[in-house]
Amino acid sequence: MILTIVHILSFIAVGLTVFQLLPYRHWIFRAPEYMCTQLLGSSIVLLLFECIIGFRQGPAWIIIMALAVCIILLSKKIYPFTRFGSKSVPDYQGKSPEKKLSICVINVLQKNEHYEKVRSCIIKSEADIVLLLEVNEKWVSNLTTLSSSYPYVINRSREDTYGMLLLSKLVFKDFDIHHIYDETPQIECILRKYGTDIHFFGLHPKPPVPGESSTSLPKDVELAATANRINELSYKDYLVVAGDINDVAWSRATTKFVNNSRLHDPRQGRGMITTFPTYAPWLGFPLDQIFCSKKFSLINIKRLEKVGSDHYPLLVELNLEK
Asked: Residue 161 burial (CB < 10 Å; 0-12/13-18/19+)?
C-alpha cells in the first residue's frame, strides 16, 4: 500500500517536471514552473523512498531513474538562484555608496486596508522610487500623506487589481503609459539622479491562473514587448525593470526576457528571496522582481516586513557605476 502511494506521487512529480518542458502556454503546463523548488524537494524524498522500499522491484528502477533525471533538470533550473550560483549583478565594493539608487516594489493587495502599514513601510525603506501595484482610488487617497516625501507621481489606478502607482523622490524627465495586452498598464519613465538619466519600467502582467488568464500569453507578450522596447532605446546604460512579474525567475519566459533584454537579475547568486504568498511561506515564489542593466552594482536586496498583503515588499539598493 505504501509503495503504491509512493509510486503514484513519483509519477505526479515526474509528470509535473515533464510538463515544464512542453512548449504550451496553458496554465496547466506553465504552473509547474513556479513549483520547481517544491518539486525538487519532493523528488529527492520520493527517490529515497523508492530506493529504500522498492529497490527489489524491477519497475521501481524505472521510477528511480526518472526521478533522478527530474532532480537534475530541476536543480539546473534553480541553481543560479541559490547562494552557490554566480552573481549576475556584482556587489558594491566601496565603503559608502557614492551614487545610490533604491527601488521598492509593493503589491498592496487591492482589498487590503492596512494603509498605515504600507505608509510606514515606504517611509522606513527610504526608497527613491516606490512602485505600488493593485492600487485603486481608495489606495491613492490613503497615500496622499506621502506627497511631501514623494512629490513626483504617476497614477494609473484601476478597480480590477491591475492599477499602478509610482511614487518618486526624483523628477520625471519623461514618462508614458503602455497598454501592451488586454489594457493592463505598464509604466515607462526617465528619471534624473546624479545628473544621469535612469530609464525605468514598471510591470504587472496577468498570471497564467484560472480566473485571471487561462494561458501565459498576456505575461509572455508583455515581457517580450518590453525586451523589444529596451533594445530599441539608444541610451540604456542605466535601466531598471521592476514589478510583480507574476512569474518566477527561472521560467522559460523570464529567462528569455533576461537574455533578450540583456538585463541582470540581482537575485542570482544570493538566494531566491521569495515574496509570495505571505500566508504560506513554505510555498515561496519569487514573483516580485527587479532587473537592471550592467552599469549597476548591488548594495542590498531584501524582503521587507508584511503589510497586510499576500506579497512581501521587495527593496533593492543599487549603485550607479561608471
From this structure: middle
Helix (H, G, I), strand (E, B) or coil at 259: helix
pTM exceeding the 0.90 threshold for the entire prediction: yes
In the block, cell 529596451 appears at 230
Report the alpha-carbon distance of residue 152 to residue 42 in Å, rounded: 47
List all residues 6 or more positions away from 12 whose beta carbon is below 8 Å from its beta carbon. none
pLDDT per position as a tens digit, 175-219:
999 999 888 999 999 999 999 999 999 999 999 999 889 999 999
**Using CA atoms, how far apart are residues 319 and 296, in angstroms rounded to an integer?**
5
Specify the CATH number for the domain of residue 292.
3.60.10.10
The enclosing H or E element of 238 equals none
Provide the residue range defining the domain that includes 225: 100-320
Cα dist. 12→6, 15, 80 in Å?
10, 5, 25
How confident is the model over 71-124, as pLDDT tens digits? 999 999 999 999 999 999 999 998 878 899 999 999 999 999 999 999 999 999
